[in-house]
Amino acid sequence: MAVGLGALPRLHPVPGVRLGTAQAGFKAPGRRDLVVMALDEGSRCAAVFTSNAFCAAPVTVARDHLRVGQPRFLVINAGNANAGTGPQGIEAALRCCELAAEQGGCDRARVLPFSTGVIGEPLPLGPFRDGLPAALADLREDGWADAAAGIMTTDTLPKGASLQVPVGERTVTVTGIAKGSGMIRPDMATMLAFVATDCEVAPAALRRCLERAVAASFNRITVDGDMSTNDACVLAATGRGGPAVTADEGPDFEALCGAVTEVCRTLAQAIVRDGEGATKFITVDVHGGRTPEECRGVAYTVAHSPLVKTAFFAGDPNWGRILAAIGRAPVVGLDVSCVEIDLNGVCIVRAGARADDYREERGAAAMAGPEIELCIRLGRGRYRDYIWTCDLSYEYVRINAEYRS
Amino acid sequence: MAVGLGALPRLHPVPGVRLGTAQAGFKAPGRRDLVVMALDEGSRCAAVFTSNAFCAAPVTVARDHLRVGQPRFLVINAGNANAGTGPQGIEAALRCCELAAEQGGCDRARVLPFSTGVIGEPLPLGPFRDGLPAALADLREDGWADAAAGIMTTDTLPKGASLQVPVGERTVTVTGIAKGSGMIRPDMATMLAFVATDCEVAPAALRRCLERAVAASFNRITVDGDMSTNDACVLAATGRGGPAVTADEGPDFEALCGAVTEVCRTLAQAIVRDGEGATKFITVDVHGGRTPEECRGVAYTVAHSPLVKTAFFAGDPNWGRILAAIGRAPVVGLDVSCVEIDLNGVCIVRAGARADDYREERGAAAMAGPEIELCIRLGRGRYRDYIWTCDLSYEYVRINAEYRS
Fold first, then answer.
1. Where are the domains of chain B?
2. Within its chain, how far is the Cα of A367 from the centroid?
3. Looking at the partner chain, which of B227, B310, B401 has a beta carbon nearest the beta carbon of A400?
4. φ, ψ for residue B213, nearest 5 deg
5. For chain B, give me the number of helices (H) and strands (E)?
């Protein structure tokens, strides 16, 4: 029941990146659940990870390996998160890297492991042993769509985005895939996202580009407020075919960064559109705060309110619940008589109370569609910020009550 | 589907307190929805209210009136919260006080108004005009049970508690009623609770007694993390029949305070047991923090996690979700390898990972009953704190998706 999310768009190959998948047996038989992303020698990666104290073993290992050198292989399994698994989990993640390194002919530290799925189950190594040869044999430049499907867990649709934009004298490709549907409230990066470009990008510029893109995309979404233990977003630059972006400012950097941001935004929105049980895609856009953080604080408080989320599910313009959520948001000295709320352009609240000309029918009509723009004006400053979220339905409860059974 | 909550216990009358109810027409016809609580001259009240910036009009008026003098009448209506109603809401709350004052023969400022129900609808005055004479005519010392029923909204059962304890040479009665089921995450006091004693209590002692009782009861519960605009808890001391408690310390104060706290705890737990859609009553008990606040921060993060709540609903000991919630709680520098989790006495997590001897069957068995004790040890300090919460079921979504329709 994904909201406004269709089939995958065309995902342009990125010279220097090849992807392969295999049915390794982490999930149900017949399901591609192992993905390998191979980066040509000379590629460079930047990555951001979950800030959850219980980060998963692969996150710890990937962070360590990124400090040592540039990755040649990203190995991703779906069906088991290798999180909450203690020292054995670290060992399993390292062993997975070793297996890929042996077959791929590189150092173990040049493999990054990623896992997604159930937390707390030991990560089996058999599927890596069985599946890696097939995944490596399957490596190809047009493997993005299969990889997008291979990393899915409770996702109902694969998620990908791709752009070609001019940078300097040349055309650059930026292509990315992501997975995620529940336990979505990133603070660093969400679930798993892999984005690549054929530009050659200097380390500082690559890092800054990723941080800017993530701040404007994955760090603006929430499905259920639950931050994952496995969140990771990787940006790879292969330098094959694209121009060199050497500075972390200037027109070339901005052009590349704009494209990466756009791809990340599409992927982040796709995660919310495919949020567990989602029937509405909601933009919470908060204006008039004293700082952007204040605006985001209000937006997240509204977006996490179970009462607001169930009202959206019901298509009920229950603005009282929105007011109540704003009233408990982290804003010091809020003057409620300045607060205004519009819902898909319909003026609902003025001066902290129901607008004089508001009619319930107009609010209900504005709520009827699947795309909702909730605009909140705090009337106390000149800053604005926004996030994307979805509603809370029976289906969310069903999915998460039945997840392991 | 309230969890472990039966019929009202015997509610001992409190000399000096009379209660009356009426079918005023705020809610469906035939439903008692207007309650008047009359306090004899010489009674003294303390009260705490919501810290929501969008506090309801009656909260503003009740706060103002408490500054002026001691209340004679508390007027409570169910079905309309008079919240988000702007200046007209204040006027309506004052008018309600006026109507009661005229008929009760006192100053308007000696009436406290309380409202609960739908937010954002104008509070009609007709039902007060029609219902107040009947409610005042109905005033009686044994009116507690009817009053407990009269203040209900989405509650499925009335909530009351009553104790008689020795204070000094005499026996003191403490009786209270409360309502609340959704939008429950008090920061001051929850929804509506009215507690009375026949002690004579000095102002400072009364205030301190209420604050201590609320800290140990209503400020430890959460159903859905949504803080109400109307929360209020009033403690009245009539001085009729009970001894005088003049100091805010010493054995008499402690005896009274213990009884008030116990009544408030029973009422607070009753609210969670009757939480919207609740099928489990869960104590989240956090040990080994560096401060009590740290322990509460972990407890609330776990209690608000939709993934943890749906797992409890499913009876699924999905400890990975509990770990993930602990990992994003506001604890600086948490060493996850020290974390331990027990569930109804079954050891589940040791050293931040699944305990060696844990078996899924034992976890499932521990989750099967309606009462869950979730014990989390952080292993970094000597403080402990705990809260009470419930699970998240289909029924919660249904109730809140259909509330206004």
1. 17-273, 281-401
2. 26
3. B310
4. -65, -45
5. 11, 18
Q: Do B86 and A320 touch (CB under 8 A)?
A: no
Closest-CA residue of A relative to B276 is: A307
Residue scoring higher pLDDT (A402 or B54):
B54
With H, G, I as helix, E, B as strand and everything else as coil, classify residue A298: helix
* Cβ distance of A328 and B119 shorter than 8 Å: no
List, in order, residues 6 or more apart from B67 with CB less than 8 Å away. Answer: none
* Residues from chain A contacting residue B402 (CB–CB below 8 Å): 314
3-state SS assignment for residue A191: coil
Average per-residue pLDDT for chain B: 87
Say if residues B267 and B9 touch (Cβ distance below 8 Å).
no
State the DSSP H helix or E strand holding residue B390, giving kind and residue range, or none if neither.
strand B383-390
Residue B356 in this model has a pLDDT that exceeds 50: yes
d(CA B344, CA B363): 9
B294-352 confidence digits (pLDDT tens): 999 999 999 988 889 999 998 888 888 898 889 888 898 899 889 999 999 999 999 98
Predicted local confidence at residue A190, as pLDDT: 40
Residue A222 designated active-site: no
Tell me the whole-structure pTM to 2 decimals.
0.79
Residue A368, min C-alpha distance to chain B (Å): 14
| Per-residue pLDDT, B39 | 93
Q: Which residues of B touch A311 (CB under 8 A)?
A: 400-401, 403
Which structure tokens are listed for B152? 């209900």
Residue B49: predicted pLDDT = 84
Chain B residues in contact with A52 (beta carbon < 8 A) = 324, 327-328
Q: Is A396 on the interface with B (CB under 8 A)?
A: yes
How many H helices and E strands in chain A?
11, 18
* Chunked mean pLDDT (size 10), chain A, 405 residues: 82 93 90 94 87 85 93 94 90 97 96 89 94 97 95 86 87 87 51 81 86 78 66 81 83 87 83 85 95 92 89 88 87 90 93 89 90 96 91 83 63
Query: Quick check: A398 and B394 CB within 8 A?
Result: yes
Contact B187/A at CB under 8 A: yes
Contact A306 B402 (CB under 8 A): no
Q: Do B320 and A83 touch (CB under 8 A)?
A: yes
Please, which residues bridge with residue A349 across strands?
A341, A354
Cβ B53–A328 below 8 Å, yes or no? Answer: yes
Mind spelling out the 3-state secondary structure of B123-155? CCCHHHHHHHHHHHHCCECCCHHHHHHHCCCCC
pLDDT of residue A183: 63
Question: Is domain A17-273 classified as CATH 3.60.70.12?
Answer: yes
Burial of B152 (0-12, 13-18, 19+ CB in 10 A): buried
Closest CA to A151 of A43, A274, A239: A274
A401/B306 CB distance under 8 A = no
Which residues 315-374 of chain B have a CB within 8 Å of chain A?
Answer: 316, 318-321, 323-328, 331, 334, 336-337, 349, 351-354
Residues B154-170 have pLDDT tens digits of: 788 898 899 898 888 88
Cα–Cα distance for residue pair B393/A279, rounded to 1 Å? 18
Q: Chain B window 189-248: which residues touch A at a Cβ cutoff of 8 Å? A: 224-229
CA distance A253 to chain B (A): 34
Whether residue B126 contacts residue B25, with contact meaning beta carbons closer than 8 Å, is answered with yes
Q: Does B300 touch chain A (CB under 8 A)?
A: no
Edge to edge, what strands does the sheet with A232-237 contain? A44-49, A232-237, A192-197, A170-179, A159-167
Burial B112-122 (b: 16+ CB within 10 A, else e): bbbbbbbbbbe
The superfamily CATH assigns to domain B281-401 is ArgJ beta chain, C-terminal domain (3.10.20.340)
